[in-house]
Structure prediction request, 734 residues.
Amino acid sequence: MKTKRLLLGDEAFALGAINAGLSGAYAYPGTPSTEILEFVQKDPVARERGIHSHWSSNEKTAMEEALGMSFCGKRSMTSMKHVGLNVAADPFVNSAMTGANGGLLVVAADDPSMHSSQNEQDSRFYADFAMIPLLEPSSQQEAYDMAAYGFELSERLAIPVVVRFVTRLSHSRAVVECHDEPAPENSLHYPANPLQWVLMPAMSKRRNRQLIADQESFERASEESPFNKYIEGADHRVGIVASGVAFNYLMECFDGNPPFPVLKISQYPLPKKSLRRLYDSCDSLLVLEEGQPVIERQLRGVFDAGKKIYGKLSGDVVRDGELSPDAVRASILKVRPDVKGLSEGAIHGDSDVVVSRPPALCPGCGHRDVYAALNAALAEYESPKVFGDIGCYTLGFLKPFSAIDTCVDMGASITMAKGASDAGQFPAVAIIGDSTFTHSGMTGLLDAINEDTSMLVIISDNLTTGMTGGQDSQGTGKLEEICLGLGANPAHVRTIDSLPKNVEEMKQLFKEEIEHKGLSVVISRRECIQTARRHAGAKKA
Amino acid sequence: MKTDIVLAGVGGQGILTIATILGAAALKENLFLKQAEVHGMSQRGGDVQSNLRISSSPIHSDLIPLGGADLIVSLEPMEALRYLPYLKESGWIVTNTQPFVNIDNYPEMEKVEAELARHPHVVAFNMDEVAKEVATARSSNLVLLGAASPFIEMDPEKITEAIAAVFGSKGEKIVESNIAAFREGRVRATEKM
Prediction:
């Protein structure tokens, strides 16, 4: 039996994984990947089975935990946003060397257009770099189906498999046909070749040769994949390679019937035979892909000697930002101005009355009081520098606070403030949230503690992972102990409630600790207004 | 049938509830649906939009092409105007006229109203006031859904059932109040069409 459900791309994949016998899901929240683990946490089958779904401290720990479960023969997955894969890169790349025992899916959700991210990196490069297969769903139904398919592929090829999402699939809902009866979980069983899980040079050298040899079977799997499709077309002046959601936009432009031959790509490594077939039968190629020009680069090569290839590198497809039906339409018209059947595009121009409405910290948010106090404390110094981090409090960069000078990556506030202090900067202030602190701030703090670096670290603790919607934060209730346990001077680990009435007191506290010639940590604490409201609502109900 | 809707508003106003209700109704009616929404940083008081596509045949793209929307449905007047390039020539704008002012440079209301008035197919009224009259201040989004409903080829009774299903867990009183807001919105829009 099958039932129809209305699901986000993220949710469809999570449900597909549960129905395919998932035993453990591991993740750190990050837009647009967060809803994958959240779905597992709420799903009745997952709860009944006790499928692991607790948040991990960061993407590296999540990846390693999932790998450990795979080692024991069970099906596991780890999900993260694209930049999370940077954090998990060490275990991820090395998991190609260990291979997988139980099916292992590594989900990376890219964010082209940077709706909620700091860059547009394309996770397909990572799969290529690690030499492992990648699936790229184009629809919510494919996202659902690819979970079971991916687990089978991972077990058959004995290798982790990457599943690449993009924002427009992760956060778009559609009707999905799902199975009613979840498959049983794998039983505990150990790898057939245990030596390849010990990556010492002697074993690694042998394993690396095997991994290189396996590329052929990975490519054969792509040729045979039900998700890669060759669609005939009458007009052979151009053949179109369309991957992931770009395929949808192409179909939208021609209402499902493009006049050109099309190769839909949803599984990598690239199926060379199918690409060759398209290339041989057409006068030129147009490459449509969401993200960076991964396919186009491979087709073009360094010498770009063959037939004309249109794409992002040639300037025929928009290079930055996400694609859309409009962007794809413009590219088709550029390549084939005589093409028939495309829609007209915009009729109304932009309204000149409309102004931009940037996001802002919520009214009643504790970060506001921290920034008010910090700005007041720093007003007396000539050239203070405040090193920010990733979270809601990054919005402190915007007016009215204009309070931070940098925002780079998870945890960089503390380590960059340390480097600045080492360079002679005074005052050097780091501001970091509680969840970001336990994700990647603790190790940097240890550096600063060991050298008693003259700097102030503010941990703005809102008892949750706020920006992604209020997930449990791993350091809740133990931030002071963590700092003291790392060796911070107890006289300079201080705590204050970040309330409007405490702004003056907070300002004095910041000033005292800035003047202290050594490392200080101030933990400013107040529950996130959004989660506080939810908690109050839950109590009432 | 095929209706492409751009839902617009400011983060926290409740446009996703409209999408949830129409989604539940479409699923029950065995229709195809795609609904792209925004999560993460932009939700915090910034402009938010959702592309909602409902059709009796399969839908390819999660995003509506420029000039392709049958409807712009907005909880805020300036936000309605932000998406004009997506509107079809024959498309309608259904919007709340109550501004949500959380920025210093919000345009003069006369200019916003004049721009809305320039369009031939507009249903605009103060939905916050109507919500307060017939339900509660928090139901403006249901008034808006009601006002948009004459332009969506779906049985209003099916949408009412979906409202009951979506709010069912919150008790009968809230369901009734939301249905009242929906019905009043529909009546007011029909008067203005």
Residues 143 and 166 of chain A are 11 Å apart (CA to CA). Chain A has 20 helices and 18 strands. The longest helix of chain A spans residues 201-224. Chain A has a mean pLDDT of 96.
